Amino acid sequence: MLERFTKSAREVVEGAAGRAERAGAVTEEHLLLALLDLEGTRAAFALAALGVHRRREALEGALDEIRRRGGISRAEAEALAGLGIDVAEIVARVEDAHGRGALATGRTPRRRWSAGRQPFTREAKAVLERSLRAALARGDRHIGDEHILLALAAGPGVVADVLTEYGASQADVERVLGNGGEGRARTG
What we know:
Distance between the termini: 17 Å
InterPro entries: Clp_N_dom_sf, Clp_R_N
Pfam family, one: Clp_N
Domain Clp R: 2-188
Protein name: Peptidase
Keywords: Repeat
């Protein structure tokens, strides 16, 4: 599959792996943050057109807050509140007892030595598989950074929830990218 990746898609994977060094494994979050680092690509165009780049700090803060809550998104916290469960109160009590970030998700696979390469979480691997499906569905012979963005937005998961919250739902991303030809920047 990696032979089909464009230069920009490889940059996303390499950037995510670089970000994951301290975490121990590449996650969906790392893929999104690596996408946000790109300039002049189709995904960068889409993220800028949707206003995500302007709100990058807020988006990163939202991801940090979700991680702090043990992976529970804002929508999930609101649904639990409807059942009378106050996630903020639970997080506060756990952090009072065990310190800030005690619930932070750090789902990393068991560490195997792999010649300097970071392992990918199951969710990150699923994103890359969905990016192949997105490319095939669009009739593309390559997997570009735009396909990784489409795969992230297609969810399921926290990253898709945050993208939707910041105006980059799957439908929004598809609209901005068009059907393969509209709004093209370099595919690298």
